[in-house]
Please model this.
Amino acid sequence: MSFTLSTPVSAELHIGCKQSTPSTTLHRAALHPSKSLSTSRATFTTRCVASSRDDSSSRRDVMLSSAGMIALSSFIPALPAFADDEPLGTHYGAANPPATPGKVGGVAKAQARYTFQYPESWKEENISKVEKGTNGTDVRFNGPARKKEKAFVLTLLNYGGKTGFTMEQNPITLLQSLTGSLFFFVDALEDGELTAKTITKNGKKFFEYSLVGNDSYLVQVTVTDGRVFGFFVNAQQKFFESDQALLRTMLDSFDTYANTDGGQDA
Model:
């Protein structure tokens, strides 16, 4: 699935003309998990209004305008790349049991139980045994401090069999059960507007949620080989809107793997 984010900004440059109204359009390409955005481009145009003077005066003005444009162009700084242009890294997580000492860096793909992509500037946090045992947090990445964006995975053993987590149950009930010990998400649920739908990725059924409020989330949840996995991408409302393409790309990159080690999950 692709998304396009286009931001029009005005700035029109006129030289040697009676009226000047600056205009420039910047275009941002759709994010894609496998490659970064193209660099933003700006086009400066020059327009002159014909006057009633003789042809030689008009030609002289056009020549002066062109010379001025060439000289001025050398002083126009290159526009900075958008933050969304940065490459994405891939995290492979093992869904370690609560007693596992906290560590960062993930595991090799062959040992992974889940994966997702994240901006390489985001920092991975060391998850404590207490947090892992209390609410099932397996990994968390934090974005720039000023935005307070984050992405994290919750994973729990599905002890209950038919009465535990299943992809046949009501998606809202499943989400509430999964996040019952996540106090900040419970608060966001109470204050925000939640929508849910069912999607299929790589032959697996997922529940996908959008929670919009002061603290907004995109979430995907699935059950794989006796474990429930939830991937959460979070941002404050203003950044949830402006960074929607990036957050969506991260969400769509989430996937789970079967338990291939031949043993039981702990």
Confidence is low (pLDDT under 50) at residues 1-53, 60-82. Helices lie at 55-73, 129-135, 171-178, 183-191, 237-242, 244-252. The two ends are 35 Å apart (CA to CA).
